[in-house]
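ARCHIVE CARD
Drawer: 12
Card no.: 0347
Subject: one protein chain, sequence and derived structure
Cross-reference: see card 0346
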Amino acid sequence: MARAQDLDVVVFGATGFTGELVCEYIVERKYRVHWAVAGRSRTKLTALLQRLTDRFGPDAVADVEMIEASSFDRKSLAAMVKRTKVVISTVGPYLKYGDALVAVCAESGTHYVDITGETGFVRRNIDNYHELARETGAKIVSCCGYDSVPSDMGQMVMVDTMLAEKKQPKSVQMVVGKTKGGVSGGTLSTVCNMMDGDPKAMKEMMRPTYLNAIRDKDEIAAQPKDQKGVVFSERLKRYTVPFFMAVVNTRIVRRSNELRGIKQVAYSESMGTGTGVLGYLSSLFIVVATPLFLAAMYFSWTRWFLFRFLLPNPGQGPTREAREAGSFTNHFFGETTDGTKYTGLVHAKGDPGYKATSMMLTECALCLALQPERLAPGGGVLTTASALGSTLLARLRVAGMTLTAQRDSAQPTPASKM
């Protein structure tokens, strides 16, 4: 009989598109961890391990176990989480498939990480499981991929740099720079699932402090509303447009600040476009085209057409070559209460939604599995910055990710141009 927590990590949803990338990352990095792959189908799990063997050699996954578990079979989930220190979940949409797994992790004291971009799921977990996880010590950490690690950790680095220099942070803005990457059917399925939700719940998600536990009037007043339309950035010297994931990232960052005791730091996000007349016109096109695309995704007949002829279905995603060729660069602009300005940079190679995400997600899990003594004590429904902090920062840098912040008088050298 297996002893309690004989595994460091279980990859739940390992046979899915992102789940397999996580498995590849663990094997490629040759991490010394006891791990298992989990999913509904033993046949698919066997095929996954065979693919990993074919690619990396016969010894690569010789000791990796297979665990059969289903999102709607609470008994199988409970048996799985009791064996491991950390569960990595790549099974989405999380509002549909994620509740039971979070519940059993919170109950058993098992740590949990995922790559959801669904703030409704995070809010539900806060309401239902935060206090329970605090009692058991389970760290429930969502949004551990491109949504929202670059935002959360980039802002943490900037704010901590200000505080280390005895400055009081006032505002931080993240501007998405040069980004190259594809999209998978699973991500698009999540978008559709959110659109099909309760309109009242969708409206509630628009609150700037949606994920904060306390409705502090001063904190609410300090936070800017999500950008609408085209805005010229004086510090970036180019036009910006709304970033479609800002509604997720900004809420995560603001919860991080609340959990870390950082008060009234205005945080916002946008996407950099271009300069001059062409930059303005391209910005206008994005502002007009984005709601039209979302409208097409909302109605069932246009959604059917898009998935039938133009968009990838669940289980599909960018090719290996496309994932390797991808990258992202995010720029951070901060200001303190005395007017001192700071500039920061977050950059990583690899498709942001897949290669980079699998790296960030795995490193989050390994913080919890291998370095718990370096983390802040206590559990709860947390964020990457509040739960993993400087330990994750060090791991991301070792994995090749750039995260910097410094005063404007000593500008960082961008990894790539906007």
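Annotation on reverse: The longest helix spans residues 276-298. The longest strand covers residues 169-180.
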